[in-house]
Structure formats: C-alpha cells, structure tokens
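Hello forum,

I keep getting stuck at the same step: I have a sequence, I want structure tokens, and every attempt I make locally crashes halfway through. Rather than fight my setup again tonight, could one of you with a working pipeline run this one for me? It's a single chain of 243 residues.
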Amino acid sequence: MEYVPRISRIATLLADPKRSAMLWALIDGATRGADELANLAGLTPSSASAHLSKLSAAGLLKREARGRKRFFRLAAPEVGMAVEALASVPAPTRAAEAPIQGKPSSGRVASGNDALRRARICKDHLGGEVASALYQRLIEAGWIETASSASLTPAGVVGLASSGIYVQAFAQRGCLKVTTCCDWCDGEPHLSGALGASLLQLFLQKGWVRKADDGRNLRVTRAGQAELARLGKPIASPALLPV
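Reply #2:
Ran it on my machine without issues. Output:
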C-alpha cells in the first residue's frame, strides 16, 4: 500500500482539466514555453505558472530556464505513458450504464479512443496495435533477428527496399540496430530508436499514415493499409532488388 498516497496525489493533479491539457501538449516529448502552454490550456500566464509549479513539484515535469523564459517537458517517458493510458480508458455509454431491462448487455463498451490504440505517435516513432503487429510480422519473416542483439537482417534490408524503404540512406544513424518500446495499450513491443523514428517519417512522407488534428493520433490510409500489410511478406524476385 506504500504507493497509494503517491497515486492519489498524481490523480488529484490530473483531475484538473487545465493541468491535463498541458501534460497532453507535452506528450510528444517536446519542450514548450510556459506562455505557449498557457495559451494551449486557455489560461492566463499567472494561472498557468501556478499549475506548472504544482506539476513540477510532483515530479511530473522538468523545468529549465532560458533567460527570463521558462520551458517545460515531461519528467520521464513513464509520465507520458500514464497520461496516454488514462486517455485510452473507455468512457461508458449511457446504454452501458443502464442496460435495458430484460435485454442482455453485449459486454462491449464503446470507446472514443479506438484510433489512439490502433495507431499513434509514441515519442518519435509509430506506436499502437499497428506498430506491434508490424514488429511481430518482421520477426516472423526473418527481417529482424532477436537471438542475440536485435538487428535488421540482410533479408530485412532487401524486404524494406522492395517497398521503397532504403535503410542504407540513413544507416549512419544506426538504423540497422533494432531497439523496441513496450506499448502501454496491450503490453506488446514495437520498433523504436533510430529505425522506428525513420520508418515513421517515411510512412508519413509516403502518405501511408496521416496525423489527426491533435497531432498524436494517426490514421492509416487505404494505401498505407495495403503497403504495411506487404511488409514482411515473401519477395518474388529478391535478386532484382537493390541491396
């Protein structure tokens, strides 16, 4: 029970919509000024300062001074994961709260965050169910080797090239080395690190995924559904592809 007071304190802080709005604005890992956060949350600078001080004192935000201005970022990735997890909790519908008498409930609670679970920006890479499924498929196809230190295999380099993803172009960033991030929504890993970040940028450039209005949710386009489904599939003539 030693964690209960800590949980209660954080929950009390997040119960304020304005504080939650400022944390959500920082969930992409960015560092933003106090004035910008005040505008995003619809607060006066003095009110925003009070809220930001409480979040910093609780260890949820890191503060840095640049001249007379103050800038803030999330104190740790776990803060973002906690906020995203809370955002994904389904809101019960009226039908779920009061089922029609004599009619059995379907057991399914509608969620307004299905899109967030399916595909989203996780720090600087693709996250969500789409990303977890893609990572598993690349392992099963032999494109990623995980026996010792995880890395992209020669077959993976050729396979990605078949979809127009030439990792040699950014190999200097260490993209052949594979690192993973564990997804909060289902506990499954997905690609992170330089490779994950580079792939997300390429997916965006190719129009396979598009950002939603809030900048965190991603929508997989029709073309993206087809192209992402091809990744990890056998290649007809690998000898003809550039290596």
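Residues 94-112, 237-243 have pLDDT under 50 and may be disordered. If your local run keeps crashing, start a new thread with the error log.
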